[in-house]
């Protein structure tokens, strides 16, 4: 544990994780100052005042430059001037999960990836509950790690969703089990549109792992397997547990499919866990997520009965292929969490009926042409919203019978109702971030659900 008592520490970014790490540092005896480039929410200011934490908003004064180190929120880019001042002066910049880990007592199970990490982290939580195992769940979802770290103990586990932004500024963050689900082009606007830089951030999850730890990874992802091949040449590093829905991995440890059964193999002990048809969530991507969940549970010595029960009963997460309502035989699906092209591809792959799709928001450097084959096969109407409308229109308008634009979600849903027929699906799967029109993807998804429920 690092000593922070009596140190002056600056926190940049006053959203959920910024408030959480400021509160943690205050509890540990630090003198904390919070600064934000924009306005701070009234509820956050009230909380900071209650905690006797000084703060500033709508810009950074020289008061923000005097910290022993800078605690950075995931929403603040490394290129921000204040962050650069700290780095250029030789001072450290740490993420919230890094700082929280200094006070952690539990083995960490950390999940990252471009898509599916929220689903898998919640699935792990469900599994641990089925096994009656003490744990905390948080990180990039629900509660920040800093909010929960005081509840950790040697007899429990910390189940954490971690993003590339959080991994960018770690130093000693050390998962016992790390899970890397996939790496696809996402958030490239934060990495100078350099895919390799983004991928390197994801791989930092194993940076501090040793031979006593586990690295669970997607064998079907070529970016990941290429890196793992180079990793195998090194003597030190975590034990490897690949998972695959496409390949038989019986020559190695891991999880795979054989004769429509899920096979788990760890320490050369092979087990037929259950038929794939018994996994509650549909779609190949969810089968892949289930394999990752099962491996993490088995590496944590959770018994097979609890793993099977979890895979049979987990119902998914809000805003990820969530059935909102069926209206006149048309299913309305909320997939607001699909903020990149790959997530939309998986969403389209999950249905075999004609569809209307609502796309758009704040563009992240997307190449929408990657969706052409899926859209031509399944989609008759695209409704574009938000700042990305022109890019979507340019790349996709010519390949569908109907292309519409909408000024807001209510208008988009009404337009979808006009063209969708019984037995079809209306899918909100934006491929973009939400910040042009909404606070976050949850806000966007909730507005979609409100609009559907008004039909």
UniProtKB/TrEMBL annotation:
Summary of the function given for this chain in its UniProt record: Cell wall formation. Catalyzes the addition of glutamate to the nucleotide precursor UDP-N-acetylmuramoyl-L-alanine (UMA).
One MF annotation (Gene Ontology) recorded for this entry: UDP-N-acetylmuramoylalanine-D-glutamate ligase activity
Pfam families: Mur_ligase_C, Mur_ligase_M, MurD_N
Keyword DNA-binding in record: no
GO cellular-component term (any): cytoplasm
Origin species: Fodinibius salipaludis
Subcellular compartments: Cytoplasm
Name of the protein: UDP-N-acetylmuramoylalanine--D-glutamate ligase
Keyword set, alphabetical order: ATP-binding, Cell cycle, Cell division, Cell shape, Cell wall biogenesis/degradation, Cytoplasm, Ligase, Nucleotide-binding, Peptidoglycan synthesis
Domain Mur ligase central residue range list: 111-297
């Amino acid at each position: 544990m690092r000593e922070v008592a009596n140190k002056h520490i600056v926190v940049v970014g006053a959203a959920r994780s910024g408030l959480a790490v400021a509160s943690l540092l205050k509890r540990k005896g630090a003198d904390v100052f919070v600064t934000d480039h924009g306005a701070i929410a009234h509820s956050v200011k009230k909380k900071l005042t209650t905690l006797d934490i000084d703060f500033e908003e709508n810009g950074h004064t020289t008061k923000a430059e005097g910290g022993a180190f800078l605690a950075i929120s995931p929403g603040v880019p490394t290129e921000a001037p204040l962050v650069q001042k700290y780095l250029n002066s030789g001072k450290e910049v740490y993420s919230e999960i890094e700082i929280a880990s200094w006070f952690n007592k539990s083995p960490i199970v950390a999940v990252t990836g471009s898509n599916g990490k929220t689903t898998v982290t919640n699935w792990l939580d469900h599994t641990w509950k089925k096994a009656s195992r003490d744990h905390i769940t948080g990180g990039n979802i629900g509660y920040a790690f800093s909010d929960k770290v005081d509840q950790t103990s040697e007899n429990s586990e910390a189940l954490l969703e971690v993003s590339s932004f959080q991994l960018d500024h770690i130093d000693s963050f050390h998962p016992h089990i790390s899970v890397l689900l996939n790496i696809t082009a996402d958030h490239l606007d934060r990495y100078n549109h350099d895919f390799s830089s983004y991928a390197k951030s994801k791989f930092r999850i194993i940076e501090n792992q040793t031979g006593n730890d586990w690295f669970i990874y997607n064998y079907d992802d070529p970016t990941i397997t290429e890196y793992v091949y180079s990793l195998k040449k090194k003597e030190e590093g975590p034990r490897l547990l690949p998972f695959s829905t496409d390949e038989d991995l019986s020559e190695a440890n891991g999880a795979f499919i054989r004769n429509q059964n899920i096979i788990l193999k760890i320490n050369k002990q092979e087990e037929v866990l259950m038929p794939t048809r018994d996994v509650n969530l549909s779609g190949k991507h969810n089968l892949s997520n289930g394999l990752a969940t099962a491996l993490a549970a088995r590496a944590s010595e959770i018994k097979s009965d609890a793993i099977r029960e979890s895979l049979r009963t987990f119902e998914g997460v809000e805003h990820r292929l969530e059935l909102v309502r069926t209206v006149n035989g048309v299913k309305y699906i909320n997939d607001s969490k699909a903020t990149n092209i790959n997530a939309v591809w998986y969403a389209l792959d999950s249905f075999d009926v004609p569809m209307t799709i609502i796309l758009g928001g704040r563009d992240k450097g997307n190449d929408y042409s990657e969706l052409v084959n899926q859209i031509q096969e399944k989609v008759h109407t695209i409704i574009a919203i938000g700042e990305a409308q022109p890019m979507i229109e340019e790349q996709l308008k010519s390949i569908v019978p109907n292309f519409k634009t909408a000024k807001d979600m209510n208008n988009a849903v009404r337009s979808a109702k006009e063209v969708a027929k019984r037995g079809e699906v209306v899918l909100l799967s934006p491929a973009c971030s939400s910040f042009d029109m909404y606070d976050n993807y949850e806000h966007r998804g909730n507005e979609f659900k409100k609009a559907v429920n008004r039909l």
